[in-house]
Specification:
Order of helices and strands of chain A: HHEEHHHHHHHHHH
Oligomer: heterodimer
Protein name (chain A): Phosphate transport system permease protein
Largest sheet of chain B: 6 strands, mixed
Helix content of chain A: over 70%
Helix content of chain B: 25-40%
Distance between the termini of chain A: 33 Å
Number of domains of chain B: 1
CATH class of the largest domain in chain A: Mainly Alpha
Pfam families (chain A): BPD_transp_1
InterPro entries (chain A): MetI-like, MetI-like_sf, Phosphate_PstC, Phosphate_Transport_Permease
CATH architecture of the largest domain in chain A: Orthogonal Bundle
CATH topology of the largest domain in chain A: MetI-like fold
Function (chain A): Part of the binding-protein-dependent transport system for phosphate; probably responsible for the translocation of the substrate across the membrane.
Strand content of chain A: under 5%
Structural class of chain B: alpha/beta
CATH superfamily of the largest domain in chain A: MetI-like
Shape of chain A: globular
Distance between the termini of chain B: 34 Å
Number of strands of chain B: 10
Membrane topology (chain A): Multi-pass membrane protein
Number of strands of chain A: 2
């Protein structure tokens, strides 16, 4: 059965809205196709396994070697460090804001955290270079403070606003009755928080962690500035590392268009795209599981 | 023996008065029914007696309320008060846990860790709430899988599991079918020997069926309280008569 429209305007508006909705999906598909088109050319020269698992990234030596394992490990190390720092902080901050803080402090803190989200990442990179890296160098007695740890700490601050606001939403949407039911049985406020409220908000907390990871793994500018940019296999968090994103940003300008180096950078883009796609999918799954 | 005693109890929410000069005794092992139209302060009275009202920032209390002769606002620790004075809410609201864990939640809070003593408590509480036979084979299932009436009995069992002395019921059957209602009323009658119970209900007949004495509240005031049979047959106040016979409310 065909839908009848009341007027031409109605028809036009509905089609226009449909086109806008379809466009967003189309853009994602186009971006992916573009990445594939440029990136897949690499695999006529380099096998997928040696691209993913070989330990040497020497794109401009002769012959060039395109092993991105050190870059992947760099990304994972920095991300892992950032999450280890930001999740406990984020959960604690969200609990404080939603359950403990008086109203005036709550408003103040919430806008403060939104402000943290508005700081450009390059400014955080600046702070990292000027204050954090020297501090790390002095504390751990290193030759340079530009390490995975510095990147992790800076990125933790970048991920915090996302993590705090999603966890706070999750806690606020826990039904009031759970809290009252628990308190009515003689539980303390703290017992109620960790035995009832946090478990009930767990799917939101997982989603927040996933989105935090997504935020961190895609971040480029700050890590480019403060992780030291050495494409070597990291053995400790106190070593310089280079992430997937930083590699693209640093080398795209000098790679000759059409060279295998150029294609390799696009192939890294594909890997990043897949990683963030999977992370977003997981976050979405957790959020929806919680809504059921 | 008097278990709960309030004298000149006033409760405000911000600037609105919710309870006016309530003076009321509840004896040990009695079931006191509280009837009255909505907004008459019945629920507020219950939530004052175990100090849940304090969760609302604007609430304020004046006057006295005593449990076993001790002032609940100054002489009784709030956590032990809430353990001794349990409440069953209007909507059956289990915690998002299994049936077993819902009931073990309270005892665990109060320091009981051994599995067999927890199992004993769970079984006894479920039996007291007349739910054991229906759930004994599915204790590990989520509490949300139970029907509304079963969930409400689960909430009663959860309240009983911390061994309270007083149980407050806030319209416990308002969302339930007649058969579930009957089961809960029977459970209440059985619990009489061990507990002091206060039943707030919108259902005038329920108080007549279950309670020893009935109190009638209107607009935050206690209009009258007396033996249930007398209240229902020969109320002293005309407003009580009007309410019971269904002329208003």
């Amino acid at each position: 059965m065909k839908k009848k429209y009341v007027s031409g305007v109605e028809f036009f508006i509905e089609k226009a809205i449909f086109a806008s909705g379809a466009a967003t999906i189309l853009f994602v598909v186009l971006i992916f196709v573009f990445l594939l088109k440029e990136g897949l050319s690499l695999f006529s020269e380099v096998s997928l396994t040696s691209f993913l698992f070989s330990k040497n990234w020497y794109p401009i030596s002769d012959p060039p070697q395109f092993g991105i394992l050190p870059l992947i490990m760099g990304s994972i190390l920095v991300t892992f460090g950032a999450i280890v720092i930001s999740v406990p902080l984020g959960v604690a901050a969200a609990v404080y804001i939603s359950e403990v803080a008086p109203k005036s402090i709550r408003t103040f803190l919430k806008s403060g955290i939104e402000l943290l989200a508005a700081i450009p990442s390059i400014v955080l990179g600046f702070i990292g270079i000027i204050f954090l890296a020297p501090a790390i160098r002095n504390i751990f007695n290193l030759s340079s403070g530009l390490t995975a740890l510095a990147g992790s700490i800076m990125l933790a601050f970048m991920a915090l606003p996302t993590i705090v606001s999603i966890i706070e939403d999750a806690i606020v949407s826990v039904p009031r009755s759970y809290k009252e039911g628990s308190l009515a049985l003689g539980a303390t406020h703290w017992q109620t928080i960790y035995k009832v409220i946090l478990p009930a908000a767990s799917s939101g907390i997982l989603a927040a962690i996933m989105l935090g990871i997504g935020r961190v793994i895609g971040e480029t500018m700050a890590v480019l500035m403060i992780t030291g940019n050495a494409a070597i296999m990291p053995t400790s968090i106190l070593q310089p590392v280079r992430t997937l994103t930083a590699t693209i940003a640093a080398e795209m300008g000098e790679a000759v268009a059409g060279s295998s180096h150029y294609y390799a950078l696009f192939a890294i883009g594909i890997i990043l795209f897949i990683i963030s796609f999977v992370i977003n999918l997981l976050a979405d799954m957790f959020l929806h599981r919680g809504k059921k | 023996m008097v278990k709960i005693k309030t004298s000149n109890l006033n409760v405000w929410f911000d600037w609105e008065i919710a309870l006016k000069n309530i003076t009321l005794d509840v004896s040990e092992n009695e079931i006191l029914g509280i009837i009255g139209p909505s907004n008459s302060g019945k629920t507020t009275l219950l939530r004052t007696l175990n100090r849940l009202n304090e969760l609302y920032p604007g609430s304020r209390v004046e006057g006295k309320a005593e449990l076993d002769g001790k002032d609940i606002f100054t002489e009784v620790d709030i956590l032990s008060l809430r353990k001794r004075v349990g409440i069953v809410f209007a909507l059956p609201l289990p915690l998002p846990l299994s049936i077993f864990d819902n009931i073990a939640y309270g005892p665990r809070l109060h320091g009981i860790k051994k599995n067999n003593s927890l199992s004993e408590i769970v079984e006894k509480s479920l039996k007291d709430a007349a739910l054991w036979d229906e759930v004994k084979d599915r204790l590990q299932e989520s509490a949300f899988k139970l029907s509304g009436g079963q969930q409400q009995r689960l909430c009663i069992a959860r309240t009983l599991a911390v061994e309270p002395e007083v149980v407050l019921y806030d319209e416990p059957c308002s969302g339930l079918d007649p058969i579930s209602t009957l089961k809960i009323e029977e459970a209440m009658k059985k619990l009489k020997s061990n507990y002091t119970q206060i039943l707030v209900t919108n259902n005038v007949k329920q108080s007549a069926r279950v309670s020893d004495r009935t109190a009638f509240f209107l607009m935050g005031e206690l209009i009258e309280v007396g033996i249930t049979a007398e209240i229902y047959t020969a109320p002293k106040d005309k407003r009580t008569d009007d309410y019971i016979s269904g002329r208003f409310g």
